[in-house]
# Entry
Amino acid sequence: MGDASLVGLVGRVTGTVGPGLVGEVMLRVRGGAEHFLAYAADGERRFERGTVVLVVEHLPPRTVYVEAVYGG
# Structure
């Protein structure tokens, strides 16, 4: 899976993402769903479990930076 292939994917927070936290998101990839470590793209926002997020950056192998899809 190439570096840019996760950018633009929409997923759901499964472990709170926020300042001082290593969060977790579930993304649909390779015909299934996988968990990735996640951080807020701006480093300041907090996203609770269930928030729908967009991947804006991917640091291989399993870290993503996200922002809320619905302004959350």
About this structure: The chain has a mean pLDDT of 93. The CA atoms of residues 30 and 56 lie 19 Å apart. The chain is about 0% helix and 50% strand.
